[in-house]
User: Fold this.
Amino acid sequence: MTDPDRKQQMEQLEARINAAKTAQAPKPRADEHYSQAQLAWRMVIELVAGLGIGFGIGYGLDVLFGTLPLFMVVFVMLGLAAGVKTMLRSAREIQEKKMAEEAGEKDEGA
Assistant:
């Protein structure tokens, strides 16, 4: 083996070692903290939006028909149910995404 061949092999080996180190490097955790807060706010906004839309529709129908706050109560309850359903759908979506990420990490580690 000549000296230039050995030098080239060493450079290739160092490049592979650096690539392996960067693949194994831990990811920064600051982004995850903010993404969790964003998800929490998303769920709160979904619930409040359901309540607000239900209130608006119910109040509008009560004014239109001149009734007691009957429609308002009914539509606020329907809005609450819709908001909770949307929150649960978002939570399920987040959970499935998290489980897929964990499964991907296990596959890479094995």
